[in-house]
TrEMBL record:
<feature type="domain" description="CNNM transmembrane">
    <location>
        <begin position="2"/>
        <end position="191"/>
    </location>
</feature>
<dbReference type="GO" id="GO:0050660">
    <property type="term" value="F:flavin adenine dinucleotide binding"/>
</dbReference>
<dbReference type="Pfam" id="PF00571">
    <property type="entry name" value="CBS"/>
</dbReference>
<dbReference type="InterPro" id="IPR016169">
    <property type="entry name" value="FAD-bd_PCMH_sub2"/>
</dbReference>
<feature type="transmembrane region" description="Helical">
    <location>
        <begin position="96"/>
        <end position="114"/>
    </location>
</feature>
<dbReference type="Pfam" id="PF03471">
    <property type="entry name" value="CorC_HlyC"/>
</dbReference>
<keyword id="KW-0812">Transmembrane</keyword>
<keyword id="KW-1133">Transmembrane helix</keyword>
<dbReference type="InterPro" id="IPR046342">
    <property type="entry name" value="CBS_dom_sf"/>
</dbReference>
<dbReference type="InterPro" id="IPR002550">
    <property type="entry name" value="CNNM"/>
</dbReference>
<dbReference type="InterPro" id="IPR036318">
    <property type="entry name" value="FAD-bd_PCMH-like_sf"/>
</dbReference>
<keyword id="KW-0129">CBS domain</keyword>
<protein>
    <submittedName>
        <fullName>Hemolysins and related protein containing CBS domains</fullName>
    </submittedName>
</protein>
<keyword id="KW-0472">Membrane</keyword>
<feature type="transmembrane region" description="Helical">
    <location>
        <begin position="61"/>
        <end position="84"/>
    </location>
</feature>
<dbReference type="InterPro" id="IPR005170">
    <property type="entry name" value="Transptr-assoc_dom"/>
</dbReference>
<feature type="region of interest" description="Disordered">
    <location>
        <begin position="264"/>
        <end position="286"/>
    </location>
</feature>
Length: 450
């Protein structure tokens, strides 16, 4: 075999090295994409949509990249071995050793380290460039995926029959870890409360943190500036429902209107003064401005089921870039609203509750030794934390729910029910159920003769 006859082998090795570099760069690029990068890719034409499609199928993508890269590397070293053995047979041992070493270094540096470093720095651009060839590789390996998965499962069952996946960290365990870290002075006091509140989001359901629909002021299109001004005096959001089915579809925040006003003012256009400021001039409420429909600045809401956790609601709002989520029940009816500010307030505020938001009072208020006043919206989870009790496995999620479950009807003033070691007595009852109840320990109730 002459030197000229080795040229085709060298060309093939160069092509294989380029392919290996592409697969290495794709691995680094696609798995360096953030969620917002994946969403932004979909706006770059068909290649961007292809890249976004691949990024959202991480398991198949990784299997295809690793499998194809393995085949390419095996073929590369096969070509390298052919040339090395040829020189060895001719007695050129030194040349064979140098060539084998250089071929390995070229593959490591130019096909692994360099492309991965460049792709990790520019993941979006790299994903756009490599989207089509990687998509073809995924399509080619799709028929092999069931076979590879079956081989992996068989090997695991033969060599590790007792293998069990590591269980997810439970919320209670994370709470203990937070307490231990605080006792070890690993975190500051404020950080301790933030961590505890974050953990609580995984233990609360959407219905526990939502604003009930009955307590939310709603509007139909069009929305006039005077209506918005009155709404913003008590809330930071204005909620819009459709005339046909009374479904929540959009929301307007005072922050959104403020940004819109700033953009309009900077463009030298007239803008109605609808922001909720106490020093606004009455001249803005002229007849012409009152006809402006502020619903044009409304933003769509996200939709979440009533039984998901508050942490999942927060993740949904972040993923969909929304400020408001409408909570729907199993019939598709909107039963409440959760805003991003509500969730952030729960994280960064030491004590926050719906009772304070709607009734202007604390959810649990001591009135005398062994006696407390609690609102109907007070969650069972909050009561358990306050009194250091284990969370019971029951359907009731609030104090009002405890009354309704045990009585089988809406309670009346004076109705009494039991909850754990406590006795609940309805004090104030509104049209929709308990507004205020008296909570006392059962032993204290016996001592007082009640």
């Amino acid at each position: 075999m002459s030197m000229l006859s080795l040229i085709p082998f060298l060309i093939v090795m160069g092509a294989l090295a380029v392919l290996s570099a592409c697969f290495s760069a794709a691995e680094a690029a696609f798995f360096s994409l953030r969620r917002q990068d994946t969403q932004r890719l979909a706006t770059f034409g068909w290649t961007g949509r292809l890249a976004s499609y691949l990024a959202n199928r991480g398991e198949h993508l990784l299997t295809a990249i690793l499998f194809c890269n393995l085949l390419v590397n095996v073929a590369y070293f096969t070509m390298s071995s052919v040339i090395t053995l040829h020189w060895q047979r001719q007695g050129n041992i030194q040349q064979a050793g140098v060539f084998a070493s250089l071929s390995i270094l070229v593959l490591i540096f130019f096909s692994e380290m360099l492309p991965k470093s460049l792709a990790a720095q520019r993941p979006v651009a790299s994903a756009l460039i490599l989207a089509f060839p990687i998509y073809m590789a995924v399509r080619l390996t799709n028929p092999l995926l069931p076979v590879l998965r079956g081989i992996a499962i068989s090997i695991r069952r033969v060599f590790w029959p007792g293998f069990k996946p590591e269980p997810f960290l439970r919320v209670r365990e994370l709470e203990k870890a937070v307490r231990f870290s605080q006792e070890a002075a690993a975190v500051l006091e404020d950080e301790q409360h933030v961590l505890e509140n974050l953990v609580q989001l995984s233990d609360l359901r959407a219905e526990d943190v939502m604003q009930p629909r009955t307590e939310v002021r709603i509007f139909h299109r069009p929305v006039s500036p005077p209506e918005a001004k009155a709404a913003f005096s008590v809330s930071k959001y204005l909620f819009i429902v459709e005339q046909e089915d009374e479904a929540f579809t959009a929301a307007i925040s005072s922050r959104t209107l403020m940004r819109a006003a700033q953009r309009t003012v900077s463009a030298d256009e007239p803008q109605p003064n609808v922001l909720p400021a106490s020093d606004q001039s009455n001249t803005t409420e002229s007849e012409g401005l009152d006809s402006v429909d502020l619903a044009v600045w409304a933003e769509p809401v996200a939709y979440v089921p009533w039984n998901v956790t508050a942490a999942q609601v927060l993740q949904t709002l972040v993923d969909e870039h929304r400020d408001v989520a409408a909570v729907v029940n199993e019939y598709g009816e909107t039963v409440g609203i959760i805003t991003l500010e509500d969730l952030l307030s729960r994280i960064f505020t030491r004590e926050t509750s719906r009772s304070e938001q709607f009734f202007g009072r604390r959810p649990i208020l001591p009135v005398q030794p062994g006696v407390w006043h609690v609102t109907g919206l007070t969650s069972v989870y909050r009561l358990c934390r306050y009194f250091g009790l284990e969370h019971p496995e029951e359907a009731s999620r609030t104090v009002a729910g405890i009354f309704q479950d045990q009585l089988g009807r809406l309670p009346k003033p004076g109705d009494i029910c039991r909850w754990g070691p406590f006795e609940l007595r309805a004090i104030q009852v509104g049209r929709r159920g308990v507004i205020l109840a008296e909570l006392r320990r059962c032993d204290h109730a016996k001592e007082t003769g009640e």
